[in-house]
Design brief:
The chain is an all-alpha fold. It has helices spanning 5-29, 47-73, 92-109, 114-120, 124-135, 142-165, 171-202, 209-231, 250-259, 261-287, 290-310, 318-334, 339-343, 361-366; strands at 32-33, 42-43. Strands 1-2 form a two-stranded antiparallel ribbon. It is globular. It starts with a helix and ends in a 9-residue tail after the last helix.
Length: 375
């Protein structure tokens, strides 16, 4: 069945905003500008300030939800289901996971390339699958176990590509890349915990997706904004790439933005894109299918890689193509995207409806990006 113009628009919007979200965050990291009190020009390395901006974008989804709800209630026959009443504090545990995972990923993005960042986020499949078996009692199908193993292989290939591409660089830069890649994978464990918590405690309450994203964004924005104050005084030595060597120097970030307004444009792009990406992702799942959303989310990895190469942000390495293909295969196997192809084989017969071991649609709905991320 051919897509309508609206469905094509949603697919394009999801692919574009999803790609812009990572690219704009990396663009901000590439800027250099003087800081406060006449400090010399230095890189814009403020991952926690960037994370606050991302949560502000998620928070805007809550505003959109209430605007749509008010508009729907003015109709003679309202059609929008706002979901049942619930305690917003149900979202506090997953919001804390989202806050920690997102912050770690923004730290890692300062150390590695945008394409590797996006590819390595595919590790969330591994930990989500294992945690869903351990804590949700789900049974994974053989194809999903194979998908996990293939994903692990893809991560190894992408990591190897990073190591080989930095072979000519100094040891400090190489260690940064290794640390960044490991931080991204570690963050996916936290994102997987977030997804399991959401499924176990939140989605049984029939919460509207926009309200879910917006409420988590509210908690993340408020808590992380408050934490910026003690972070301003916590010295972490050479781990922090700011003049005072503290965990986060928000004042330095604002001074750099004042000296280089393009940084604000990059941060604004990150904030706006995450809001539209969540809206588009939810709409694609509703109007087309969760499978289409997974395909589009995989395609944005390719878009990020191509744009990064075109802008000269990274150097071409053939192993990245191999790693991307392997990760794509792992994602396809885990999410059942191989079923339509198998169904066309003459020797195949059987019902292709969802089985008990399938990843539930709600898990797919917020999985990457969200994630968080997605991110």
């Amino acid at each position: 069945m051919a897509w309508t113009k609206y469905q094509l628009f949603l697919a394009g919007l999801m692919l574009t905003t999803g790609s812009l979200n990572t690219l704009s965050a990396k663009w901000a990291d590439l800027f250099s500008a003087p800081g406060c009190h006449g400090t010399p020009k230095h890189n814009f390395s403020h991952p926690f300030v960037q994370a606050v901006g991302m949560f502000l974008g998620e928070l805007s989804c809550l505003v959109v939800f209430y605007i749509l709800l008010c508009h729907d209630r003015r109709k003679p026959e309202p059609t929008m289901d706002p979901g049942q009443s619930f305690s917003p504090f149900l979202f506090l545990p997953p919001a804390l996971c989202d806050m920690i995972g997102t912050s770690i990923m923004y730290v890692a993005l300062n150390m590695t390339s945008a394409s590797s960042f996006q590819m390595l986020r595919g590790a969330v499949i591994i930990f989500t699958g294992l945690l869903s078996v351990a804590f949700l009692g789900r049974r994974l199908k053989p194809s999903q176990w194979v998908g996990i193993l293939v994903t692990i292989l893809g991560l190894v290939v992408v990591g190897l590509a990073d190591l080989l591409s930095r072979r000519g660089d100094d040891a400090h830069k190489l260690s940064e890349v290794i640390t960044g890649d490991l931080l991204i994978i570690m963050a996916q464990i936290i994102v997987a915990v977030q997804m399991v918590l959401e499924e176990k405690f939140v989605y049984k309450h029939n919460v509207h997706p926009l309200k879910a994203v917006g409420t988590e964004g509210l908690f993340g924005f408020v808590i992380l904004s408050i934490l910026l104050i003690p972070m301003f005084y916590i010295n972490v030595g050479s781990f922090a790439d700011n003049p005072r060597h503290v965990l986060e120097d928000a004042l330095d970030a604002f001074c750099q933005i004042g000296h280089k307004p393009l940084i604000f444009l990059a941060l604004l792009g990150n904030t706006v894109s995450i809001a539209f990406f969540n809206f588009a992702g939810i709409s694609v799942t509703k109007e087309i299918s969760a499978t289409t959303r997974m395909v589009l989310d995989s395609l944005r990895t390719l878009v990020i890689w191509v744009v990064s190469l075109a802008l000269g942000w990274e150097v071409f390495h053939g192993l990245q193509i191999l790693g991307f293909i392997i990760l794509l295969m792992g994602t396809a196997l885990y999410n059942g995207l191989h079923k339509p192809l198998i169904a066309k084989l003459p020797c195949f017969s059987g019902d292709q409806t969802a089985e008990e071991g399938d990843v539930p649609e709600r898990e797919r709905l917020l999985g990457e990006g969200k994630a968080a991320q997605e991110s």
